[in-house]
């Protein structure tokens, strides 16, 4: 018997719900709650009422509301696929009720575009004392990229030195401008200053100012820009031999031109402004007029390619490997009615949950993905829709 409560009913949640519903051997009972209950009902309809047995309205900014719902549903695990703002109230509710927790993105305060693990790592002792576990960042990046790194370190190297995580969306959704996951969270992330780790310290760069043209398997050459991404913070902590760790994401010229215009006219700001007698946040308004990422799936073509270049030493010799997955937008739509960015996030969340519920990864405290043995998780990626490959290659990056 394994009962899960999934919170959130957006693009990623749709994939988590449907993949969990396909696996009654791991998830015997699924409950779904979100801010807008109609979205839960729609997903329940699509996944089957025999599998999603309860839907609920909840404001997950309120820990007390979440705790009351947990008491009613009595789940073994809460899967948080709402927004990063809800991480702490949901963790508080899990602590209060003694239930395990999993999420896909680290906490961000709503009024400051800043993300770091300090807030969630601060729960470690309390989760440990309560005898419950939190698994943080169980999406693709963060998530699978952390596990790829752990797998490389375990099977291919004696010591790892250089890490470059690369995230390419080579797909085409046919829209002039759209984001592939929650627009507010996405735009906050990419308009921040870039940051990477080198020789024991963080170095900052102007936003989207450092470019490499990288060749992605089955996609081709794409302009890729250095960004700060949350898994860098945990990976440099847990792999202290790393001399440098960076993250790269592809953006097309059309996307960047739109983004620059939106920034220049103030539409990406999170400072509230007065508009016709009420306060509005420009970025929240922008989110309301942009396409819903979940709606992009129909007609989306092409592949994503997300992976991890690792360079290090094996038997005294330096080598580089690239571990990656290609994911096809159209195939994801055919399987679960989602585009590949939601799919590549939702499938690892489902797998992470199955690993916890079956006891493969179960340890009281707050943990990142790379802190567990990677092998069974890697097996399950192959089995449940995200097959990966490892190639030995020359590093495409300069020292
Ligand atoms: P969406 O905006 O599509 O969905 C978010 C859902 O959360 C919506 O259903 C929304 O409700 C619900 N929600 C928001 N606020 C509350 C609240 N206060 N109480 C209850 N429910 C709430 O986002 P995505 O599905 O695109 O993203 C989900 C998460 O996945 C995000 O945290 C994102 O950062 C993360 N992510 C992680 C990735 C990774 O690889 N690790 C990659 C992509 C995303 P409503 O429908 O009412 O708006």
UniProtKB/TrEMBL annotation:
This is Saccharopine dehydrogenase. PANTHER family: CARBOXYNORSPERMIDINE SYNTHASE. Transmembrane segments: none annotated. InterPro entries: NAD(P)-bd_dom_sf (IPR036291), Sacchrp_dh-like_C (IPR032095), Sacchrp_dh_NADP-bd (IPR005097). It comes from Pseudidiomarina atlantica. Residues 4-135 form the Saccharopine dehydrogenase NADP binding domain. Pfam families: Sacchrp_dh_C, Sacchrp_dh_NADP. It comes from the Bacteria. The lineage of its organism: Bacteria, Pseudomonadati, Pseudomonadota, Gammaproteobacteria, Alteromonadales. Residues 139-386 form the Saccharopine dehydrogenase-like C-terminal domain. SUPFAM superfamilies: NAD(P)-binding Rossmann-fold domains.
């Amino acid at each position: 018997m394994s009962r899960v409560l999934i919170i959130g009913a957006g693009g990623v949640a749709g994939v988590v719900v449907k993949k969990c519903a396909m696996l009654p051997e791991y998830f015997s009972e699924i409950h779904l709650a979100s801010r807008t209950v109609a979205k839960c009902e729609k997903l329940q309809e699509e996944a089957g009422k025999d599998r999603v047995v309860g839907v609920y309205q909840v404001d997950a900014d309120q820990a007390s509301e979440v705790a009351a719902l947990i008491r009613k549903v009595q789940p073994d695990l809460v899967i948080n696929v709402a927004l990063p703002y809800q991480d702490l109230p949901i963790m508080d509710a899990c602590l209060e009720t003694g239930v395990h927790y999993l999420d896909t993105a680290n906490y961000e305060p709503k009024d400051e575009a800043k993300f770091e693990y300090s807030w969630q790592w601060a729960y470690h002792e309390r989760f440990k004392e309560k005898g419950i576990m939190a698994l943080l960042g169980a999406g693709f990046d963060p998530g699978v990229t952390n596990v790829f790194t752990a797998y490389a370190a375990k099977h291919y190297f004696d010591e790892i030195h250089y890490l470059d995580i690369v995230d390419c969306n080579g797909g085409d959704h046919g829209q002039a401008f759209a984001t592939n996951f929650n627009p507010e969270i996405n735009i906050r992330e990419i308009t921040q200053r870039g940051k990477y780790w080198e020789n024991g310290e963080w170095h900052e760069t102007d936003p989207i100012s450092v470019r490499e043209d990288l060749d992605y398997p089955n996609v081709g050459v794409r302009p890729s820009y250095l960004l700060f991404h949350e898994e860098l913070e945990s990976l440099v902590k847990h792999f202290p031999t790393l001399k440098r760790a960076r993250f790269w994401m592809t953006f097309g010229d059309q996307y960047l031109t739109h983004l620059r215009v939106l920034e220049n006219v103030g539409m990406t700001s999170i400072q509230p402004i007065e508009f016709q007698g009420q306060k509005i946040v420009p970025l929240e308004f922008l989110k309301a007029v942009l396409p819903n990422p979940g709606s992009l799936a129909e007609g989306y073509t092409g592949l994503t390619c997300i992976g991890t270049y690792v360079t290090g030493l094996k038997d005294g010799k330096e080598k580089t490997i690239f571990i990656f997955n290609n994911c096809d937008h159209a195939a994801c739509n055919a399987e679960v009615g989602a585009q590949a960015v939601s799919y590549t996030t939702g499938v690892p969340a489902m797998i992470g949950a199955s690993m916890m519920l079956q006891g493969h990864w179960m340890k009281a405290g707050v943990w990142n993905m790379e802190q567990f043995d990677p092998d069974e998780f890697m097996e399950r990626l192959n089995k449940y829709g995200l097959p990966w490959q490892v190639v030995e290659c020359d590093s495409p990056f300069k020292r």
